[in-house]
C-alpha cells in the first residue's frame, strides 16, 4: 500500500508570481554551466535551496531558507492540496504537441525492501550523501522526484483536467516546455487520489538520489525517536506522479563521457574489438541513425573519429550468471559490463563511484567535449523503452546508473514541501477513506 498525502506547500509569495520563470530552476544534471551561472546570479532563484554553493552548502541553504521565510519571499499555504502539473512539449520531428499529465503529492519514503516503491537503476554514492545533508539542515524539499503508477482506466485525469483550467502558474521553461500547475484542495477529490494510489506500487522514474536520501534521513530520525509512529513529517517525501500507461511519456538516452584514460586510439579499438564489431564512420552525424535499430549497438567517438560498435552476439554468454536475463539483454548492461568492466577495467560494482565516467543528456555537448580533447572518448547510447523499465522494476533488479532520462524534466521551485513538524502538522486523516 502506497500512502500519499496532500502537501501543505510553501510557494513564492504572490507578489513574485510574475517573476516565476526567473525563480524556478532545472534539475542540476540537465543544465549547462552557463545556465547555472545565470541561475546563481539571481539571489532569489530556487537553485540556492536545491543545489546550494559554498564550503558548507547545506548550512548555506538553511540560512537562505530562514531569510526567505522571515522576509516572506516564501509563504506556506494554509490548506494542503494535490498539485496538478501538466507539461506541454514537442520533440524534433513531432507535429502534434504532447502533454504529460501528473500531480505532486507527498508519499512515505518507503525502504526498498518494503516493495512499495521500486527502483530501476543504481545510484552514485556521493550524490545521496549530499541529499541527506541538505535534508538534515533544511528539512525542506525543493525538487519533487518522479514516480510512475499504472492505471489503464486513467481515473484521475478528469479531476486533473478540470483543475488545470484554473492554473496558479503557466510559464515557459528553459527547455521551451510550457509548464502549467494548478491545485486541488477539495477533500472529497483528494480522497480519490489517495484511494487510487494506495492500491499501487510506484516505480521511481527519476530522482533516485533524492529519494534514497529521503530514506536514509527517515531511518536516522526514526532510530533517534523512541516514540516513532510513522506519521511524523520526516517520514514523507515530495513526488510527482504520472501514469506509466500514458501515451505521452518520453524516455531519452543518456550518453557516457570517459576521462583520464591514457590509452592510444589504436590500442583502445583493438581491446574493444575483442567483444564488439567496430566500424569507422565518415561523420559523427551518422551515429544516431546507424545505431537506432540495432541491438547492443553504440556510437564511439575518439577525438574527432566516430565509430559504430556492436556486441558480438555470442559474447552475451560470457556475462556473469548472477545477472538476470531481464537485465542482461539491456543495451546499457552490455555497455557497462563489456566496455566499462572488461575493456576499461572498472568493475560493475565500482562504476557508480568512478570519477572517470560522466553522464551527458545533450548529444552535441557530449561530442563537443570529446572532439575538443576535454574527454578521452565518449559513447553514444539509445533510449530504453517504458516496457523495459517496468520489467526491470518488477523483477527486483536494477539497471546501471543513469539509464533513463524521462523528458521533460520537472522544474524546481514551483512549490516546496517542508518536513519540519511545525510546518507539516495538519489533520490528514480527513483525506483517508
Q: Please, how many domains?
A: 2
Count of helical stretches: 15
Mean pLDDT: 90
List low-pLDDT spans.
Answer: none
Largest sheet: 9 strands, mixed
Percent in strands? 15-25%
Q: Helical proportion?
A: 25-40%
Based on CA atoms alone, the radius of gyration comes out at 22 Å
Query: Class by helix and strand content?
Result: alpha+beta
Large-scale geometry: globular
| Oligomer classification | single chain
Distance between the termini: 13 Å
How many strands in all? Answer: 23
Structure description:
It comes from Belliella baltica (strain DSM 15883 / CIP 108006 / LMG 21964 / BA134). This is DUF1015 domain-containing protein. It holds the Pfam family DUF1015. The chain has 433 residues and is α+β, with helices and mostly antiparallel strands. It has 2 domains: 4-251 and 407-431, no CATH class; 254-382, Conserved hypothetical protein from pyrococcus furiosus pfu- 392566-001, domain 2. Helix content is 31%, strand content 24%. Strands 1, 5, 6, 7, 9, 10, 11, 12 and 13 form a 9-stranded mixed β-sheet that branches. The protein is globular, with a radius of gyration of 22 Å. It starts with a strand and ends in a 9-residue tail after the last helix.
Amino acid at each position: 500500500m502506497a500512502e500519499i498525502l496532500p502537501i501543505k506547500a510553501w510557494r513564492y509569495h504572490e507578489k513574485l508570481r510574475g517573476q516565476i520563470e526567473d525563480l524556478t530552476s532545472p534539475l542540476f544534471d540537465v543544465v549547462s554551466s552557463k545556465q547555472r551561472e545565470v541561475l546563481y546570479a539571481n539571489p532569489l532563484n530556487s537553485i540556492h535551496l536545491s543545489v546550494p554553493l559554498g564550503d558548507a552548502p547545506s548550512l548555506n541553504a538553511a540560512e537562505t531558507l530562514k531569510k526567505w521565510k522571515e522576509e516572506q519571499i516564501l509563504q506556506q499555504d494554509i490548506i494542503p492540496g494535490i498539485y496538478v502539473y501538466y507539461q506541454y512539449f514537442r520533440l524534433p520531428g513531432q507535429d502534434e504537441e504532447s502533454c504529460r499529465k501528473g500531480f505532486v503529492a507527498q508519499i512515505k519514503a518507503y525502504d526498498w525492501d518494503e516493495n512499495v516503491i521500486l527502483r530501476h537503476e543504481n545510484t552514485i554514492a556521493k550524490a545521496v550523501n549530499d541529499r541527506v545533508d541538505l535534508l538534515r539542515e533544511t528539512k525542506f524539499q525543493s525538487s519533487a522526484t518522479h514516480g510512475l503508477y499504472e492505471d489503464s482506466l486513467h481515473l484521475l485525469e478528469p479531476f486533473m483536467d478540470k483543475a488545470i483550467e484554473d492554473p496558479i502558474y503557466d510559464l515557459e521553461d528553459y527547455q521551451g516546455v510550457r509548464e502549467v500547475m494548478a491545485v486541488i484542495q477539495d477533500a472529497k477529490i483528494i480522497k480519490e487520489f489517495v484511494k487510487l494510489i494506495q492500491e499501487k506500487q510506484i516505480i521511481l522514474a527519476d530522482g533516485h538520489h533524492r529519494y534514497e536520501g529521503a530514506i536514509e534521513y527517515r531511518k536516522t530520525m526514526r532510530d533517534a525517536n523512541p516514540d516513532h509512529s510513522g506519521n511524523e513529517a520526516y517520514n514523507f517525501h515530495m513526488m510527482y506522479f504520472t501514469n506509466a500507461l500514458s501515451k505521452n511519456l518520453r524516455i531519452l538516452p543518456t550518453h557516457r563521457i570517459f576521462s583520464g584514460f591514457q590509452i592510444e586510439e589504436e590500442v583502445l579499438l583493438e581491446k574493444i574489438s575483442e567483444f564488439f564489431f567496430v566500424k569507422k564512420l565518415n561523420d559523427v552525424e551518422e551515429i544516431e541513425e546507424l545505431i537506432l535499430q540495432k541491438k547492443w549497438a553504440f556510437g564511439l567517438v575518439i577525438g574527432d573519429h566516430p565509430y559504430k560498435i556492436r556486441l558480438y552476439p555470442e559474447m552475451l554468454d560470457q556475462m556473469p550468471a548472477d545477472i538476470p536475463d531481464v537485465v542482461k539483454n539491456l543495451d546499457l548492461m552490455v555497455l557497462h559490463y563489456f566496455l566499462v568492466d572488461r575493456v576499461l577495467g572498472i568493475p560493475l560494482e565500482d562504476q557508480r563511484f568512478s570519477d572517470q565516467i560522466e553522464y551527458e543528456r545533450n548529444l552535441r555537448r557530449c561530442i563537443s567535449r570529446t572532439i575538443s580533447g576535454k574527454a578521452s572518448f565518449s559513447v553514444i547510447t539509445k533510449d530504453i523503452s517504458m516496457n523495459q523499465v517496468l520489467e526491470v522494476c518488477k523483477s527486483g533488479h536494477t539497471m546501471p546508473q543513469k539509464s533513463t532520462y524521462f523528458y521533460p524534466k520537472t522544474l524546481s521551485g514551483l512549490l516546496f514541501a517542508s518536513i519540519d513538524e511545525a510546518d507539516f502538522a495538519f489533520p490528514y486523516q480527513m483525506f483517508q477513506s
